[in-house]
Structure formats: structure tokens, C-alpha cells
Amino acid sequence: MIELLGPRQMAEAARTGALVADILQAMERRSRAGTNLLDIDRWVRELIDQAGARSCYVDYEPHGFGRGPFGHYICTGVNDAVLHGRPHDYHLVAGDLLTLDLAVVRNGVAADAAISFVIGGQADPESAALIDATEHALAAGIAAARPGARIGDLSHAIGSALRDAGFLVNTEFGGHGIGSTMHQDPHVSNTGRPGRGYKLRPGLLLALEPWVMTDTDELVTDADGWTLRSATGCRTAHTEHTIAITETGARILTTPTQPAAPQV
């Protein structure tokens, strides 16, 4: 299903997107050496409840993936865990590369975003390169998103940026349409051929999410059935925004309402 949102839904999408971004920003500020991933999950639940929203993850149980519902409010990936990281009893240490991925729905419209950062604030060169690559690829994908463009144009822009940075590109998981539900068509691969695929129209929401691993494009799945890790144990990073296609281009919806504060 592909949804095109009207003006009222777009306004609600912007509010939901800001909520997602603000929660992620708050979690980045609060995450430090000694923080438990289960505490992050609890803090996110509290903020979602206070906002009158609902996590898209708690009851999420897609056919053929996972082992029962996800059961948590946010995805937490540490170091080699890049996607669907299930919060567990782990205390962060300085230097950990943490990825937080959050999707919520409020008043019938969902938004989805992810950030990656290093605990303690000082990123090593490998982690910095991973994070920079995903951020630059995301910016390239957003720049290509405009009415009349094709999904393949976005995928090509993302993939080119990742490869130019020296990384392999996995095509198993990528971006997606979003609206009244978290995952919708069209699928947005992180690499592709320009001029192919669905033509973008005003009212379309897309979640674009480049992710990379240092030295592989292969994933392995944890025993929890959810957490996806690099096959070689190398570090990973993942960055995501929800964008709206407007008459003039793409609008980023998952932008925090307040300037980012330094991590402590």
C-alpha cells in the first residue's frame, strides 16, 4: 500500500516526526558510560506515554521475521549490531558505538528515525567514518527526493555516496514508505538504478535509512530472532530520517525542536 497524505495528515506527520527526533536527542544526551540499554527503553516508554503516542515496535510481529512481538519501545544497536537491536541487560562503556532507531505513531500518523553516536562523545576514526558515511548518504538521498523523481534516483544517490566512502552496500534492508503504519510501500533500497521505480508525488512520506558495516555486507541474526549484526563482528552505523515529498522538494520531518546539547 502507498499512501498520499493530505494537508492535515502532513501537519500531524510533522508533529510526530518532531516527537521522534526530540526523544532520540534526549536519549543521546542521557546515554553515557554505565547506562543500561533497558533504562533507555524505559525512558523512551515514559516519553512516548507522556506525549500520548504509541511505539510502533512493542507489538510489531511481521510475518517471517523475529520470534514473537519485538516487545520493546526502541531499537538499541551496540557496535556490531546495526538493525533491530533488541534492548537487553547491557551497560554501555566509553567508546561504544550506539545506534538508536525509533518509530512512533500519534493521531494516526507514524514517523521513523535513527541516529548513531559514540558513547563519551569522542569517536575513533573507524566509528566517525561509518557515521559520516551514513549521514552523507542520507543527505544525498534527500537531495534527490522531489516530485517526479523515481525511487531508483534516491537509491542510486544513497548507494553512490556509500560506495564513494569505501563501503559495501547490503540490499536486504533499506528505507520504506510510511504513513498510518510504520512500514509501507515503496521499498527504498540503499542502492539502485536511476530512473527506475515509483514516481514520487506530493503527499508521500518516506523513511530513508542508509546503514553500513566496516568490512562486510553480510548480516547474521542473534538468537533473539531480531538483532542483526555484521557477519564479521565489525562496527556498524545507521542514520534515518522521515521525509515528506512536497510540491517543491523534500521536507525533513524528524528534526529536533531544540538545538542539540553536547553529550556528557
Explain how this protein is built.
The chain contains four helices and 14 strands. The protein is an alpha+beta fold and 264 residues long. The longest helix is centred in the N-terminal third of the chain and has 24 residues, at 7-30. The mean pLDDT is 95.
| Top CATH class | Alpha Beta
How far apart, in Å, are the first and last alpha carbons? Answer: 43 Å
Which percent range describes the beta-strand content?
A: 15-25%
CATH architecture: Alpha-Beta Complex
Shape: globular
Tally of DSSP β-strands: 14
What helical percentage do the residues reach? Answer: 25-40%
Radius of gyration, taken over Cα atoms and rounded to an integer in Å? 17 Å
In sequence order, what are the helices and strands, one letter per element? Answer: HHEEEEEHHEEEEEEEEE
Instruction: Write the CATH fold name.
Output: Creatine Amidinohydrolase
Uncertain segments: none
Q: Specify the CATH homologous superfamily.
A: Creatinase/methionine aminopeptidase superfamily
Q: What average pLDDT do the residues reach?
A: 95
Q: Which strand order spans the largest sheet, edge to edge or round the barrel?
A: 7-6-8-13-14
Q: How many domains would you count in the coordinates?
A: 1
- SS-derived structural category: alpha+beta
Largest sheet: 5 strands, antiparallel
Tally of separate helices: 4
Short description:
This protein is of the alpha+beta class and 264 residues long. It is built from 4 helices and 14 strands.
